[in-house]
Amino acid sequence: MTRLLPRRLPATAVAFVVFGLLFAFATIRSPDFASASHIRQLLVFASFVGFAALGQTLVILGGGLDLSVPWVMALGGIQLSIWTGDGMSSALGVVLLVLVGAGIGTISGLGVTALRIPPIVMTIGMGGLVLGYLMRVGLGSSTAASAPAAAERLVNDTLLGLPLIAYVWLAFALAAAWLLRRTGFGRALYATGANETVARLAGSRVAAVRVAAYAASGAASAFAGILLSGYVGQTYLNMGAPYLFSSIAAVAVGGASVLGGSGSYWGTVAGACTLTVLAALLPTFNLDAAWLNIVYGLVILLAVGVNRIAARGVAA
Amino acid sequence: MSALAASVRDAGVSLKRLPRGEWGTPLLLATLIVVDVSIQPALLDVTQIGLLIQTALVAVLLATAQTLAVLTRGVDLSVGSVLVVTDVLTATKLGGLEGDRLALLPLVLAAGAAIGLLNGALIAYGGLEPFVATLATWAIFDGVALLVLPTDGGAPPQQLTNLAIGETAGIPNSYIGLALVLLAWLALRRSPLGVRALAIGSDAERAFLNGINVRRTKLIVYALGGFVAGIAGVYLAASTSTGVPTAGDGLLLPSLAAVVIGGTSLAGGRGGVGLSVMGVFVLVFIGDLVAALQLPSWVATVASAAMLLIVVSLRSLPQVLARKETA
Amino acid sequence: MSGGARTTQAQPIVDRPSPFGAGDGDGLRVAGLDKSYGPVAVLAGVELHARPGEIHAVLGENGAGKSTLMKVLSGVIGADAGHVSLDGAPLALGSPDAARAHGIRTVFQELSLVPDLSVAESLLLERLPTRPPGLIGRRRLLRDAAALLERAGIAGVDPRRRVRELSLATRQQLELAKALRTPPRVLILDEATSALGPAESEWALAHARAQARAGAVVLMISHRIAEVRGHADRLTILRSGRSVATGQPGDFDDDGLIEAMLGRRVERLYPERRPAGAQVVLRARGLHVHGAFGPEDLELHAGEILGVGGLEGQGQRALMLALAGAVPWHGQLELDGRPLHHRSPRAAIAHGIVLVPEDRQAEGLLLSHSIRSNIALSSVARLRGRLGAIDRGREAEATAREARGVGLDAARLGEPARNLSGGNQQKVVLARALMTQPRVLLLYDCTRGIDVGSKADIMAALAELTARGVAVVHYSSDAAELVHLCHRVLVVRGGRIAGVLAGERLAEEELLHLAVGTRGGREEAAA
Fold it and tell me: What is the extent of the structural domain holding A160?
């Protein structure tokens, strides 16, 4: 396991420490916080953010940003329910949608690398196309559609007291860590995000890793949307909306630089857990759900600010 | 150099003054207008056009705010959230059960400017990248708007509504609104502030060499953008007679699309609000055509997004191809 | 390199009396000026005294500190220590505006015209003319700009055009017109004629002379020795951030100037030069980078260190980047007899050609990453073990080996690269390149600004490398280094090879003469 621990130990470790402190604080405030059922629930929520942020992490590490996450998530949930409603096996549907998500991401990546379109513009545009398609598919903003049974099982069934989805998440986290730390792809991705010119001159496959990161983001977002629809039991157009901010905030809180080049998926995991705890804390302070948005924004500012100060301190 | 060579060179120089590639958007807009009008001849009426402009005015204002940020080589992801803040404030604080309190309007507008000021401070003095700072404020102020007005509702003052959708001397006020926006832009473009903002977007280091206070100028530009986006929110509340705290998120894409389609360079330094207004109307006419052809509304969404991507690709293409030729 | 705006032949008239008097003050005095970037001292106690009414040239080879000095005087950067005074009064040069307030006007080497503004806006940007409501009067703007152009003697430039559309030569002329907007107390010309042909250069220098006659102090940086001799009244020579000589141009002959600029070198720094092989490793025919270099032919032999010299910005960068596959190039390239068509650095590295880039901090290193991963960056594919994952053990071993080979402390490989000194950082980039086991190593000014010890380590590594038959192309701004390290040297001027020096002709004076064009070579500076 030690070989998979990120080299940037300080930032990721700090993220986990922050999470730990926050969790302890929450437990002190309301003892039920640490109850088994509540932890299960938190893990499920955190895994949604975690998956939405999986691809976002890769994209940000490579120096980009993916603003199409909420729409691809919605696509995952909505399209799967349509297909399973038409009789397709949900397993096939999931695989296809992950591929579709990857395809959407690939187009974004190609636009960013080959045509030098700014990531914000490219991914907002792709998001708009997906939104248009979803509007065509005919589901209004709160029409319920049946969620696939498999997705429901993943989030509701447990193994050894933890929801199945937590194990799936762990598996992906290990895979992501391996990918980032131990492969040429990971090296090239970090290099590209840190300094694209250096990476290119040193022979890294700058364009390929960028496109792959966006493709992964699309795939992960689609998968996250499927999971979410399983949990909520229905699908609707705006189901992915909160995940735009939370995916980016999770990456930032996890210690990654929003400009790219440093960070880890473990950090994002800690970030997702932290954000989930924060969200759960709000009701205990009698704070509206609207405060969640405010929290996301403040957290992003805080994380970026701390990151900048820390980076300055490290410089010899 | 011989006189002949010199005169040949000079002739070449004057030919280059034809605007390159900037005829695309006007041509596109003209085509759309022609097609739309031929399908709906009834459109050629002062009141009808006034209504069209009225629905476009919110987008015009947001595109203006976005243009300001983009001209300085930045971006403003929070334009939508500034809009909803002033929108809900207009719906709840200015109007409502206790009667109209229009005197508070300047405060509402100041709120928009204050958010813009915050953006500017984070970017210019905090050193944050524009996309990060405005992403964060987008989130924060979306939340603030929901706190002020959790669900659609509220009652903007009737006077504002009358102003927004009324007429002055027989001309719908929306014409006046549009004209004011364009005039204000012209004034800005002709002011030292405007030139300095463009200089910063073009080349911040050289702007500094010329004695421009880069930080302060950026701060002011973002504050102005917030102010304009705030006006958009007041206008939206007034013209729809209600407050909608979630209206902002869907308006970010059109604001960016309008800027891109209009032709303002995303790298800063070139372009302007006039171009972005053209971009807005391209989107407006696409939407109008879609409605006139009785196509479902998703067609407009897809067309707008597709237009954005196509135009930005086409604009990038010459540079990308050129880089394959030269060092 | 032509295409400037037409200039009027009339002698420029300084039509406003200088508000600073007839120029009988003490002039500009610079004493003890220091400026360092980290451990690298760019200015180390510069002394300068330029009197009013004189054109004072500042000479020195690349990296001597001339431009840094000009930037300090222009208020662009601050010095770490030292005094600057004008006519006895100390100057506070905290910003470009402050410098201008003191009457210091600068023609910047990199030009200060903002590319996307119109000529008129760019010329008058420091102080835009406004009318009461606070707006810029467009007609007045154009009129003032036209008047400025006319007074400067520039014809045929439409003030409404965008600066970006104009040629570099025209822009340089505009930069001078801009500087002359108000009568200067000190006029600084930093390579103000570098893009200009003979007629336009005369025009620019006539302006300089007119300002001097009106009582200003005129500082002029130029590499054109002929220009200096023809127009400067006195000169100061900088070397390694210090003033090493001052006097009148007549006090020095060409050789004397060059010698003062170069100074004495530590010759035992360089390893013994083994003879190069005869086998041609790399052959280029008609190598051409559009608008920057060529077409030229060249050959590189096994075990040879081929130097590339010349003044900065003459096309060497294009040449090196083309060989490295980093910019589009045309022509024919052969490696060991096989044709090459590489279009990316990745492809070049795969063929065995690798570049150590110019700017180690911006182009060479990932500063926040560890030294080890920096060294391994170009060779990741070769370190793969089971399941395609990077074998950490192999990586550690290979990087440590390369690190030792360039004299780096293998124990520090886990630290971030930004912790290292400039010399050690350069070694990291070199180690990364060497780890790719290249056939051809391209070095871009890799010894600039690093300490003697690191230089020695790098030289030793190169010696070992060439002994194994690897060929090296070594671009350096250090003429002595080129002479003592390289077998042959290509001197690049104006995008072409001005000459190839080898054997007895390979000497510093020859190099510099070819570089500045004061002696022979394949062609005179083109108009």
Answer: 10-18+35-308
CATH of the domain at C30: 3.40.50.300
Binning pLDDT at 50, 70 and 90, where does residue C24 land?
A: low
Q: Which of C345, C365, C380 sits opposite A200 (nearest CB)?
A: C345
Task: Report chain A residues whose CB lies below 8 A from the CB of B132.
Answer: 258, 300, 304
Q: Which of A188, A201, A204 sits opposite C357 (nearest CB)?
A: A201
Domain identity same for C176 and C284: no
Q: Which of C500, C475, C434 is nearest to C318 (CA)?
A: C475
The verdict on B101 touching C (C-beta cutoff 8 Å) is: no
Cβ within 8 Å, pair A198-C390: no
Of B202, B75, B66, nearest in space to A119 by CA: B75
pLDDT confidence tier of residue C61, bands split at 50, 70 and 90: confident
Residue B120, in any domain of the structure = yes
Q: Which domain holds residue C497?
A: 271-365+437-516
Residue of A nearest to C354 (CA): A202
How do residues A234-264 score in pLDDT, each as one tens digit? 788 888 998 999 999 999 999 898 889 999 9
Is residue C94 located within the same domain as residue C177? yes
Question: Is any Cβ of chain C less than 8 angstroms from the Cβ of B192?
Answer: yes
Which of A187, A195, A200 is facing C373, going by the closest CB pair?
A187
C396 to chain A nearest CA, in Å?
A: 13
| Placement of tokens 């929450």 in the chain | A26
- Taking the complete model, does pTM exceed 0.95, yes or no? no
The answer to whether residues C324 and C441 belong to one domain is: yes
Q: Which residue has the higher pLDDT, C153 or A161?
A: C153
Parent domain of B128: 21-323
Residue C267: pLDDT band (50, 70, 90) is very low
> For A293-312, how does the pLDDT look when each residue is reduced to its tens digit (9 = 90+)?
999 999 999 988 888 777 66
ipTM metric: 0.86
Number of domains in chain C: 2
The encoded tokens of residue A266 equal 């473990």
Q: Say if A79 falls within a structural domain.
A: yes
Q: Is the CB of C285 inside 8 Å of chain B's CB atoms?
A: no
Burial (Cβ within 10 Å: 0-12, 13-18, ≥19) of residue A156: middle
Neighbours of chain B (3+ CB pairs under 8 A): A, C
Number of domains in chain A: 1
Burial per residue of B9-29, b for 16 or more beta-carbon CB atoms within 10 angstroms, e otherwise: eeeebeeeeeeeeeeebeebb
Query: Cα–Cα distance between A204 and A210 in angstroms, integer?
Result: 11
- d(C-alpha C305, C-alpha C502), whole Å: 11
Task: Look up residue C423 and give its amino acid.
Answer: G
Evaluate if residue A9 carries a pLDDT over 80. Answer: no
A129: contact with B, CB 8 A cutoff = yes
CATH code (residue B103): 1.10.3470
**Is A2 inside a domain boundary?**
no
